[in-house]
Amino acid sequence: MKRPTIADIAQRAGVSKGAVSYALNGQRGVSEATRRRILAIAEEIGWNPHSAARALSGAAADTIGLALRRPARVLGFEPFYMELISGVEAELSGRSYALMLQIVADASAEVEVYRRWWGERRVDGVLICDLRVGDPRIPVVTDLRLPAVVVGGPEGVGDVPHVWNDDAAALVETVEYLAALGHRRIARVAGLPDLWHTRVRAGAFQGACARLGVRHALTIGTDYSGEEGARATRRLLSGEARPTAVIYDNDVMAIAGLGVAQEMGLSVPGDLSIVAFDDSPLCRLVHPALTALARDIPAYGALAARQLLAAVAGQSVGSVQDATAKLVPRASTARPVSST
Amino acid sequence: MKRPTIADIAQRAGVSKGAVSYALNGQRGVSEATRRRILAIAEEIGWNPHSAARALSGAAADTIGLALRRPARVLGFEPFYMELISGVEAELSGRSYALMLQIVADASAEVEVYRRWWGERRVDGVLICDLRVGDPRIPVVTDLRLPAVVVGGPEGVGDVPHVWNDDAAALVETVEYLAALGHRRIARVAGLPDLWHTRVRAGAFQGACARLGVRHALTIGTDYSGEEGARATRRLLSGEARPTAVIYDNDVMAIAGLGVAQEMGLSVPGDLSIVAFDDSPLCRLVHPALTALARDIPAYGALAARQLLAAVAGQSVGSVQDATAKLVPRASTARPVSST
DNA sequence: CTGAAAGCGCTTACAG
DNA sequence: CTGAAAGCGCTTACAG
């Protein structure tokens, strides 16, 4: 059976293809009665618009693109992305927009994918995650005039619209809380150092520690994987002037850190307080439950998608700030047993 | 600046559009010299094929579709999907195929998405995950003649090609191992009951327990979320005839179960042995590290993608079995302290 | 309100 | 080896 086209509908309805097109798209130019008849026929014969034909006639692709650049082993169990994607999807599917996803290995592949998608008119716009310092995607989308929204910022985004939240404020709140509990040796197990938000968090951490008299404020960089989170924790807990509190840049590393503390016979929170940046159900399910900086990540993704759709529609969207992560104290943080 | 088309290339090269098309697609019909000249011009002016135009001329969409139906809160932190997707991607991107992703709320939306994608010619084929008993997607892809590969089976797939692995064998191996350690009260915290693989695992579990003299072999169904895994574990550990070992249908629930045991003051593995179906880095990072049934999920996804691409190319692909999950014993399983 | 026609950017027989 | 042309399924001015 051949796929039905508007020509088939036109024939059945005894009108021109043009009339069918108007009827189907809710344009004026056909009478109400004709429109209803055409719609009924389209429904009956199971007609669907051929997306390529529409696109070729200048219509939008009704698709947005997302390229993710992280090693599969990290992506696999970073809840962040799937949560972000589910929020993006929630916004898109209501408007029958599709999501094109590609996982890439390096920066050049990432840029290449965006360039190709746009060249092939496969997407109407793209989302940019994991903004890096000197990120090559910013000049590329600017040059191509490819509608884009950065999930991140506000620094390093050039003139590209973006949605961001104030990681610095969240980190300051955390350090203040730990300092108030009496911690004077606080470490940070950070994510990839060339990401903007890692840099922002680092600055906020150092600043707050200096201001609050936290003498030992060590940061160890990782690739966000649980393995490196565990290794960093072992290093921290094996050195002298062991920290009494550690802030992790994601939940997976925080859980790995908890595992290391338990393996080394340290009690949490007695000997070590733990805070996770980003709260996932896992943080509540381990024992003790982890104090975490909670954001509504699906909502963040949905906001980004809305902004991108607006940008695609030609609106100027600029910079939008999403809610700051909230500190949710749980059982993994307490006064240090022996304040120094 | 207008987007370059083959007409621009033809003009510059002083040949016809047809010749350009042949040259660009590696077809015969142009001399080597002309081909090289055309390729050079295309490169120089930054030409990209307009995917819609190609698709309209009967070419493939070079895209495969995947609709995922699970609540966002589960998707978010089930490593399985992201790992599967990264494996699929690895196979696709080498051949410049794109992945269309949509997260849907229910079965009808899922079928609707596949129907629409196919009607709109947006995808050349689809992957079907999370096969359910009486899954409506099977008759739909069959009717539409939409190339499809089920990630699952071999039961309940009708005539649709599929890749599967032998969950039953993996579960039997696990029960035998636990029984050999001396466990006689083994429980199972299962995933969604209407999934085929849940049913297969359930049958294997009951069969193995009966055969091996495991008197208490209780199964509790969940939605795969950590919350429900924790709740099920509390129920199991609060009842009389408490199990001495629990097998969880995913790693997230296993970690939640470990948390509950610790919260209730039970030692793992002394009072309770824990096994996770599917191994993620998290299983190694918690303390004690969890015994797990490990599969190479990216490889599984890559295999599924390869089969789908073959099906799209018109080959008959049938049923392919992937490697059976391997039991990786770690610190969370041991002889029960007091054998009954 | 409706019809006939051009055009989007490719591919592909069909002639030369 | 190359050119001219039709066609894929839509949309959209342009006439009536």
Give a written overview of the molecule.
The structure is a homodimer of 340-residue chains. Chain A is an alpha/beta fold. The first copy, chain A, has 3 domains: 44 residues, 434 Repressor (Amino-terminal Domain); 128 residues, Response regulator (Rossmann fold), CATH 3.40.50.2300; 128 residues, 3-Layer(aba) Sandwich (Rossmann fold), CATH 3.40.50.2300. Helices cover 45% and strands 16% of the residues of chain A. Chain A contains 14 helices and 12 strands. In chain A, helix 10 links the parallel strand 6 and strand 7. In chain A, helix 1 packs across helix 2, helix 1 crosses helix 3 and helix 6 packs across helix 14. The radius of gyration of chain A is 25 Å and the shape is elongated. The model of chain A has no long low-confidence stretch (mean pLDDT 91). At the A-B interface, helix 4, helix 5, helix 6, strand 2 and helix 7 of A face helix 4, helix 5, helix 6, strand 2 and helix 7 of B. Chain B binds a DNA duplex (16 and 16 nucleotides) through helix 2 and helix 4.
Note the main attributes of this structure.
6-stranded parallel beta sheet; Rossmann fold; 6-stranded mixed beta sheet; 16% strand; 340 residues; HTH_LacI (chains A, B); 434 Repressor (Amino-terminal Domain); homodimer; DNA-binding; transcription regulation (chains A, B); LacI family transcriptional regulator (chains A, B); alpha/beta
Write the layout of secondary structure elements.
Two copies of one chain form a homodimer.
Chain A (H helix, E strand, L loop, with lengths): L5 H8 L3 H8 L7 H13 L6 H6 L6 E7 L2 H4 L3 H15 L4 E7 L2 H13 L5 E4 L8 H8 L3 E4 L10 E3 L2 H15 L3 E6 L5 H17 L3 E6 L4 H13 L6 E4 L2 H13 L9 E5 L3 H5 L5 E4 L2 H16 L6 E3 L4 E3 L12
Parallel strand pairs in A: 1-2, 1-3, 3-4, 4-5, 5-11, 6-7, 6-8, 8-9, 9-10
Antiparallel strand pairs in A: 10-12
The structure holds a DNA duplex (16 and 16 nucleotides).
Keywords (chains A, B): DNA-binding, Transcription, Transcription regulation
InterPro entries (chains A, B): HTH_LacI (IPR000843), LacI/GalR-like_sensor (IPR046335), Lambda_DNA-bd_dom_sf (IPR010982), Peripla_BP_I (IPR028082)
Protein name (chains A, B): LacI family transcriptional regulator
